[in-house]
Write a structure and sequence with these properties.
The complex is a heterodimer of chains A (339) and B (641). Chain A is an alpha+beta fold and 339 residues long. Chain A has 10 helices and 12 strands. Classes of the chains: A alpha+beta (339), B mainly alpha (641).
């Protein structure tokens, strides 16, 4: 019993040390900061009540009846102890009072979260469309020719609010970047919005948080918060079409990708690969991971994925094409050039 | 045809008591010998035991599927099982625990205990009771057979649309899940109706509502909750079956259906279900605390009001499962308030149980140890529940391992610990023998410590970003050690259950023989022998307080005059339990089994073709006609006396 008494206190010590790229406590945005403060408040208040309950339980254990020495029950359960009745009403009052306070704190935090973009700054606009099991990302601008399409990775400028509209092409998914904000579901037939206000530069990880089928475990999204200048450079780079292949090996890969199975599903801007049902590959080599966080983006990852997409992520919608060794080398070499 | 007048019929009383009465009642209330008697019985105790044992088997199956999952999650990027296997396992674990273990076992305990606690000879509608068990068994067997055949459901125990719809879950897996819901809801509704009728009309004379044992109050509130919440999931699963089988579009957004409709209907049932599991458990806690503290439960009226309040508030909180779905933000605040309010009655109950110990003379035997473990564990779950009532906090912890930790603290701490205590406490009543104390304590400490090791780390995992329902996780997230720790804890819990089961089997054969009232407890169920005779009580007891056996330690007053040549019950008035009429109770019959078989054929074949509903209705109708066929000329009318 007493072992448990101390547990809620280390909870905060431990969790505050839980820095990470997918951590609720390591807040890097306005929303997650507000929520974490509220969490700590709730944690302290509930810990106090837990200590009170355990203290009462230990007291009952030590007392073992006290004045009630005969061990015979009192009439109808009415206690002889006035203090116990007083304690009953004090306890109930304390519970109701604290709950009211917590409810108010929760309400005002929620209002804080809802007052998106209070300074009415221009916002980054992103359409995020969830698919089984990857994220389709489109940045949209007043001038549609400036629009950007990518997949499984979003870049955000620090200090600038981003309005993300959330849609789904198939089942319900949930968008969750714990370092930046709470969850918001992506529901077919509906459009949900979430506004993020990232504050700290860094690399964070989002993961689908609503069970969405076979590969729910492999549906992550890299979130890169960078300085506004870096963000603009990234935007400019993304608007470029894919570079032309330079080496003979990459040219062979280019020929394969644009003339065979790959191009029916994938899009590579500037080539005749213009499929729309799979992640955009125009700048795939510039991203951090392959297949929504399944493999790291490097030569080994590319080889593993292209040769056997069903090995790392069984059940996903990319078929095993059956490339021979030469084709595999060529395709990997070409994709590596798509920075 | 001669009609006997009431006076001529043999009744219990001064002329007929002692062994002669016992023999006469045993002849009237006994079952046929052997297998036929086992099939046809309408005895609430035999059916209750059957229900309890079946529920425990499902607990073991669901526990084994949890162990298997924990093995997979013990290390990162583990390839021990395919995602398909894992998804089936967590669906089976949740579905079995909620629909085939937790709710049925609480009703099973009520089926056995309530008639004894209120001093009557049998539950009301005893054949419906038998039917209910067969339906429950058929539904459970069906889904587990499907799992063994590798066509187990894989859309989660909550089966969110459109993932569970025809487009994204082709095949028969989800149909089997949805039809299992149909089986269990028929079974649960039947028991709920029986319990309401039994509790309101069959209490011993003098057992006014204000003297009713707290478990009976819990069973009554629970039964009403089942009656009001089950239709919601019945509707939800029927619409899902219609979408899948006959091409309707209730949940299809592309055809103006709404996937969120499913969530509303499911959680309107799903959240009350948690209290359907919890409230009977609070009854166990009250009875154990009272008996081992040697003092009536502190503040009985507050306890009753807490039960009723929880039952009402439970219907106003379902949207807290949907805070991330983007419903209107201000509306969410209402559900935060309602959810926080549910913790008020829980806090009052916790206070009253500890106060009972504080003011009594507690003896910390195994059942009371489980009560202490319940308080220590459940309160953590309750408090993390308070956290999640807040919309902003929920948006972070929703669908993470923090929630997994929370509801295991609430359900294992709040329902399984009390259930194990209750099992130990009433084991002598069920079997006539005591459970071994030493083995009981070993199992207790293992399960208590193992549980904390398994589930406490999950709070941190959730805050560190680990989502639920993932079959594996990457290695660089800092989740590895805590997951391994949780797996180790889960194996300690499994070992503890093994000790518990060994203890139960060993004690069944060799345990110390228990008398009628081995714990010197105050309730009516301890007034009859252990195990009780088929007719429960030779004479119907009369009650004048909440703790009848403590107040009438030497001589419990009884009421006589029930017929002994026919199965007869005493009905009393709803509020004050004033004797009202004598009423016949159904004889043994095999028709409930035939009816259940016919219904099972209809349900299972309707997974494959809608025509099964039409054709299958004929055998069901035939079985029901057989069931209700008048068997003898009516006896003398019940007499108001």
């Amino acid at each position: 019993m007493r072992r448990r008494l101390l547990l809620p206190i280390p909870l905060f010590v431990l969790v505050s040390g839980c820095a990470g790229i997918q951590s609720v406590s390591d807040d890097a945005g306005r929303e997650s900061g507000l929520i974490w403060s509220l969490f700590v408040l709730f944690g302290i208040v509930t810990a106090i009540f837990y200590v009170a309950v355990i203290a009462f339980l230990i007291a009952a254990y030590w007392r073992r009846g006290g004045s009630n020495q005969d061990g015979l029950p009192d009439e109808g359960g009415v206690t002889r102890e006035r203090s116990l009745r007083t304690a009953f009403f004090l306890w109930t009052g304390a519970v109701i009072g604290s709950l009211s306070l917590l409810a108010l704190a929760s309400y005002f935090t929620d209002r804080g979260l809802a007052s998106v973009n209070p300074e009415n700054k221009p916002m980054v606009g992103i359409d995020l469309v969830a698919n089984q099991w990857w994220w389709d990302v489109r940045y949209h601008y007043d001038d549609p020719s400036q629009n950007i399409r990518t997949a499984n990775e979003i870049h955000l400028p620090a200090g600038v609010p981003a309005m993300i509209s959330l849609k789904s092409n198939d089942v319900i998914h949930s968008f969750w970047v714990p370092n930046l904000a709470g969850k918001q579901d992506l529901i077919p037939g509906r459009i949900n919005d979430i506004v993020l206000m990232p504050r700290r530069i860094g690399h964070y990880r989002a993961q689908c948080a609503e069970y969405c089928g076979l590969q729910h475990a492999h549906m992550a999204l890299d979130v890169i918060v960078e300085s506004p200048a870096d963000f603009q450079r990234w935007e400019a780079a993304q608007r470029q079409p894919a570079p032309a292949p330079a080496t003979p090996l990459a040219q062979a890969g280019y020929a394969y990708v644009t003339s065979r199975e790959c191009s029916t599903c994938h899009n590579i801007a500037g080539t005749n690969a213009n499929g729309t049902v799979a992640p955009d590959l125009t700048h795939v080599a510039g991203r951090r991971t392959i297949a929504a966080g399944t493999l790291p983006m490097n030569r080994a990852g590319l080889y593993a994925w292209i040769a056997d997409p069903q090995g790392a992520k069984p059940g996903n919608n990319m078929p095993t094409v059956g490339l021979n060794a030469d084709e595999l080398h060529a395709v990997a070499a070409y994709l590596e050039t798509l920075k | 045809m001669t009609v006997l007048s009431g006076k001529d019929l043999p009744r219990d009383g001064e002329q007929l008591q002692g062994p002669a009465l016992d023999a006469r009642l045993a002849r009237t209330w006994g079952d046929a010998p052997g297998l036929w008697g086992w099939i046809t019985t309408t005895d609430h105790k035999r059916i209750g035991i059957r229900y309890i044992v079946t529920g425990m088997v499902f607990l073991v199956l669901a526990g084994l599927s949890a162990l298997w999952m924990r093995l997979q999650l013990a290390t990162p990027e583990n390839s021990m099982m395919t995602p398909d296997r894992y998804n089936q396992l967590f669906t089976m674990h949740g579905t079995t625990m909620m629909f085939l273990f937790a709710v049925p076992i609480m009703e099973a305990m009520a089926i056995y205990l309530v008639p004894l606690m209120i001093g009557t000879r049998n539950i009301s509608f005893p054949r419906l009771n038998a039917f209910s068990y067969w339906m429950y068994l058929a539904g459970g067997v069906m889904i587990w057979v499907a799992f063994v055949l590798n066509i187990g459901p894989d859309a989660g125990w909550f089966s969110y649309t459109p993932l569970s719809g025809p487009q994204f879950s082709p095949g028969k897996r989800v149909d089997i899940w949805a039809q299992m819901i149909t089986f269990t809801e028929v079974a649960a509704l039947a028991v709920a109706v029986e319990l309401v009728a039994t509790i309101l009309k069959q209490r011993a004379p003098g057992m006014t509502l204000a003297r009713m044992p707290l478990f009976v109050w819990g069973a009554l509130v629970t039964a009403f909750m089942v009656i009001f919440s089950m239709p919601s999931v019945a509707l939800a699963s029927s619409l899902l079956i219609a979408d899948r089988l006959i091409g309707t579009h209730f949940y299809n957004a592309a055809e103006h259906g709404d996937p969120l409709l499913w969530q509303h209907l499911f959680w309107f049932f799903g959240h009350p279900e948690v209290y359907i599991i919890f409230l009977p458990a609070t009854g166990f806690v009250s009875h154990i605390t009272e008996a081992f503290s040697r003092r009536p439960v502190f503040a009985y009226p507050a306890m009753v009001l807490s039960l009723v309040t929880t039952g009402l508030l439970a219907f106003g909180v379902w949207v807290h499962h949907m805070f991330a779905t983007g419903l209107p933000r201000l509306g969410y605040s209402f559900y935060t308030a309602a959810t926080l309010a549910v913790s008020i009655p829980a806090a009052i109950q916790i206070f009253c149980w500890i106060a009972t110990m504080w003011d009594g003379r507690p003896r910390f035997r195994v059942p009371l140890l489980y009560v202490v473990a319940f308080i220590v564990t459940f309160v953590i779950g309750g408090l993390s529940g308070v956290m999640q009532a807040s919309v902003p906090i929920d948006l972070q912890v929703h669908d993470t391992y923090f929630v997994v930790a929370h509801f295991h603290y609430v359900l294992v701490g709040g329902a399984v610990f009390p259930l194990l205590g209750a099992f130990t406490y009433w084991f002598p009543k069920f079997t006539g023998r005591m459970m071994d104390d030493r083995l009981g304590k070993i199992a207790f400490w293992m399960i208590f410590i193992g549980f904390q090791v398994a589930f406490f780390p999950m709070h941190f995992l959730g805050l560190m970003g680990m989502p639920r329902r993932v079959y594996t996780y990457p290695t660089n997230m800092g989740w590895d050690e805590l997951n391994l720790l949780a797996t180790i804890g889960s194996f300690v819990v499994a070992a503890a259950f093994l000790v518990f089961i060994v203890n139960a089997i060993f004690s069944l054969a060799r345990g110390a023989v228990a008398g009628a009232n081995p714990w010197d407890a105050p309730g009516l169920e301890w007034a009859t022998s252990s195990p009780p005779p088929q007719y429960n009580f030779p004479h119907i007891p009369v009650v004048s307080s909440r703790t009848p056996l403590w107040d009438n330690r030497n001589h419990l007053p009884v009421m006589t005059g029930l017929r002994v040549d026919d199965r007869e019950l005493l009905l009393t008035s709803v509020m004050e339990a004033i004797p009202d009429v004598r009423d016949p109770s159904a004889m043994p019959s095999a028709w409930p089994l035939w009816a259940a078989m016919a219904t099972t054929c209809l349900f299972i074949s309707s997974i494959f073709t809608p025509w099964a509903v039409v054709i299958g209705a004929f055998p069901v109708a035939a079985a029901l006609i057989g069931w209700f066929w008048p068997k003898s000329p009516p006896g003398p009318e019940p007499v108001i006396e």
